[in-house]
Amino acid sequence: MEILDKIPGIIGYAVVNAQDGSIEEVKGSSTSPLGDLSAFFSSAGEVIGNSLDLGEIDYLSLCYGGHRLVIFQYENKYLGIELEREQDPRAFMEKIKTAITPRIEVGAKPVIEEVKPKPVIELPRSIGSKLQQINLLIGEFGAEGNKNHWLDILNQGLGILAGDLLPMVGVIDEKLTFKEQPPAEKEEEFVQILRTIIDFLVKKAVEEFGSSQARVKVQTVIEKMKQG
Amino acid sequence: MKEEVLNRFEEKGLDLPFSVLKDGETFTTQKGLPLKSKISQAGTVIFETINAVGGVKIERIEIVGKKKGLLIEVGDEDITGAIFEKREGQVLDDLWNLIKQIKEEKEVAEKPSEKPKVPLSPAILEEFKGILKDYLGDFAERVYQNQLKTQRINLSQIYEDDARRLIFALGKAAGMIIGPTKGKEMTNKLLGKLK
Lengths: 228, 195
Fold this sequence. Notes:
A: alpha+beta; Beta-Lactamase; two-stranded antiparallel ribbon; B: 195 residues; 2 domains; Roadblock/LC7 domain-containing protein (chain A)
């Protein structure tokens, strides 16, 4: 379901096995237990749907705080997708289904439609440079085979610090990436947020490696950035 | 009283409004009587599921099937909702607004003698920010703003329930930066400001 990583607006998602209710995957920057919410409520939705004769369930939507979790079945999985609360659950579900449904072309193997970030995302230099710094830091801190651990820390940081930036970015192919063009009027705010994320990563590095080793790693990143 | 309110909202356009208390007591309109025990069971499933997940304050649940749908406003002690038949051009926000009105009317009807809730002084938020700054330093402002938005806190009128919810969310976020022990310590300091 990596394709979900690339869809703008998704804060996080969970994949649940529809047969046994086991949680197969949870990804993204949500601070809520998306796996448990999707597993428990997909099951509750089935029970209630049968009891009240609602018909086959199209979707469930839960609202909590500023977020909305849309849960729906796709083949033999339940997908639980966290969005901003203002999003229309049905429209978003349709968008996701379209994105992940295999297209069968005559004489060809089924292909999963690629949802790529909009073809041209031109990041302002200020944002691009911070993004590059974050990705280099993750590469450097996770150089000894624990990159996933650092990507988890990055997602944690995004979840608590990223605010309006959150639905626009995601980790794609192990890199923090913009999934859509950031609005020009948000440039300064987004730079500030990315700066805070960098501070968060460095703080975590000091905790994990000690200050002198962390400083060496940060210095390596600075050198790499100078080299361009 | 509850049935009266529900009847009125049925006339306003809700197909089958209902209310279920945590103890299972269920109210419907006359039309909903044949489904009363099933609605009650659905209420129990909702309460149990929310309890099973824990830690997330779910405010609204929407379950939409091919034939019918179910909308639920979740309260601390009860749920209020409606079952609706699916129709062409239906706008669910209109139904949500009616359910919200039922909930508000019920609250007024059930608690006529209680004193209205008094908002906290806005200054308390400045005190929260001070404590946050002590624990989180430069991260404080960003964490604070993020949680205000995530928890949908109305800054013009903040009540104790909202403040408590904000405090626990701030504590959880802080725990990811300074560790759970310090995060809990900060939560307790913030809670102390409510006393």
